[in-house]
Each structure stands twice: as C-alpha cells, then as structure tokens.
C-alpha cells in the first residue's frame, strides 16, 4: 500500500484516507442495519407476521451487533483490522442476499438476527475506536465524530431510497440492493486499509516527528483478551456508569426511534416514504451534530457534554407524541432537535473510556460498553413492539424512553470524577 501513501503524501496524512475508507464501511453497515425497519410493514402485509415477531428478529440483530463489539476489537488486535473486516463484510453481503428467499419468521431471525447482526457488529463503533486510537494522537475527537456520524447517517439517509424501492418493487428488491452495497466496499478495504501507521513507516497524526514508531502489540487470544478486559473493567464503578448510560443511549436511538419511527408515522396516516424521509432528515442533522460533538470533545469536559446530550434527548422524546398533533412545525422541530443529538454521545463516551482505561485497552472496553448500548436497543426494539401491540399506540414507549434519558443525564456526571487512569489488565 506504499503506492497509496505516495499518492496522498506531503502534508496530507494517510490517517485521513483511512478515516474515509472506514467511513464508507460504516455507512454500508449502517444502511444494512436500518433495512429491517423498512421491511416491517411489507412483511406484515405479505406474510401476516406481527410487529412483535418482526421486532424479535430486529432485537436479536441489535443485541448481537453490540455483543460482537469487544470480540471484534480483540480479533482486530489478534488477526488484523483488514482480514477481520473482509470476513465480516462478505458474511454481511451473503446474509442479506439470502434473505430475499425467506418465507418464515425463523428464517428472518436466523439471517437478519444472527448472521447479519453478528457481521455488522464487526463494522461498528469498536472499529471506529480502534482505528482512531491507532492513527491519531491529536484530533481524535474530530475523527471519531466523523466516523460515528457515518454510522448513524447511513442508517437514516438511505431509508427514503430503500422505502421507495420497497413501495414500488417489494422488499426483496431492497435486500438485493443492500447486498450489492455491502459488496462494493470490499475492494476498498482490501486495497486501501493498512493495519496501522507503522505498517507504512508512519507515525499517528499529531505524533512528534522524533517519536519512535511504536511496534505492534503482542498477539493474544481474542476471546481471552476480550473477557480479560471485561473482568478487570467490571470491578470499577466507571465501567458500569458507562455501560448503563450507553444502555439508555441505545434504547432511545437505534432500539426505539430507529426501529419504530416509520411504523409510528404509519399510525398517524403517513406513508413509509414520509416516515423514512423524516429519519433521513434526522440523519443529515446528525452528521453535523455528531461531528461537532467530536470537535467539542477535544476541547470541553466530556461529562458535561453528555449531561446536556442525554437531557435534551429525553425532553425531545417526551415531546414526540405531541409533535404529530402540531401542524407543519411539529415533526420538523423534532427531526432537527433530535437529529443533532442522535448519536452525539459517542465521542465524549470514547474519550471518557480512553481517559479512564488508557489508549491500548480502551477500544476493547468500549466494545463492552457498546454491547450495553445494543442490549438497550434490543430491549427497546422488542419492548416498544410489545407495547404497541398491546396498547395500540407508541405514546407510553416514548415517555419511558425520554424518562430513561433524563436519568442517564445525571448518571454520566459521576464518570471519572477523580480524573485518574485505572490500570485494567486484558490478559
């Protein structure tokens, strides 16, 4: 890959090209994760599956997406970022393509829940944390904000396009388009993603020119590495504060709004394309909000940022049921306000994890924190589906989600209060 380094040589650091490649990987993976929300109503009409049944498959997908995080981060240390990503992307593309043939709920649970959920869990937030800590010494928050924004933006911006395809050509056409998109990024990873700066005789961005090039970390068993990090980190209070606050983050974003907003809009007489367009609008604002959050995380107290993020998100979710009754301004106000805050919590959360547990261990420990995020998302995806099926409305689910965010806004103020680094062993 030295030819690529020469092409972008000079004052442009190769780390930014790495960010661009990973941005596209996360974009494809995020669009894949968002696809079941577009399929929910068509599957309900074609096969008669209930929303609770479809939500179960989505919740399995979300849970595995999160649980794969620490093992993916450990596998990247043991086998390398590129080989791990190539296997995951190939599995994801194959699983999505096979789902066009499904006719029974257990097939959706197996393919979309287990196969696709596990594969997308590799191309997730733990990938962003691994890449950023390896390639950047300065501007980590900005780089992480860009990558985080791609994850949420891809999940939302492609929805109107996918919903339009589902409306005109059926859900099978949707999954084939998504499978092709996942396959397209494979050659980019194969040819443009080196393992680390030292692989190209470079130093991380912002590293002094006279600093020695760091050797690769010793290879260890990825399962032992992941569970070793969990065992040590779980003995600290900060880990559980990070874990449960991110549990609420997942419950209030991917799990509830990301999964059910299109169906919720349908309850108020809106079409799938209109609901998906609302999510896409939120995704566009998230691109700015999360990138700005990364910039702010380089400069301000991460706990205070998280306090405001969770608090404002909670208020917006409590407002959501009332937004449908306000002509013109109701939903647009929610889309802008909530979109800016959609996943802005990630950069300050990664910064706190790095401050507490150190640069080398933080990606794996953050992987376990992401597992909490996705368990919360799975809980909300299935729970909101049950509440909708039993009550005929999403109002109670919105209030619960908003209340949890207000609780999280105070939990985060307790993280890393002593501003000390905790020595966590990973082996």
UniProtKB/TrEMBL annotation:
Keyword Secreted: no
SUPFAM superfamilies reported for this sequence: MFS general substrate transporter
Keyword Transmembrane attributed: yes
Keywords carried by this UniProt record: Membrane, Transmembrane, Transmembrane helix
TM segment ranges: 12-32, 52-73, 85-103, 109-132, 144-165, 171-193, 239-257, 277-297, 304-322, 328-350, 362-387, 393-413
GO MF term set: transmembrane transporter activity
CDD domains reported for this sequence: MFS_YcxA_like (cd17355)
Domain Major facilitator superfamily (MFS) profile: 17-420
PROSITE patterns referenced in this protein's UniProt entry, alphabetically: MFS
Matching InterPro entries: MFS, MFS_dom, MFS_trans_sf, Proton-linked_MCT
UniProt xrefs under PANTHER family: MONOCARBOXYLATE MFS PERMEASE, MONOCARBOXYLATE TRANSPORTER
Protein name: MFS transporter
Record organism: Paraburkholderia silviterrae
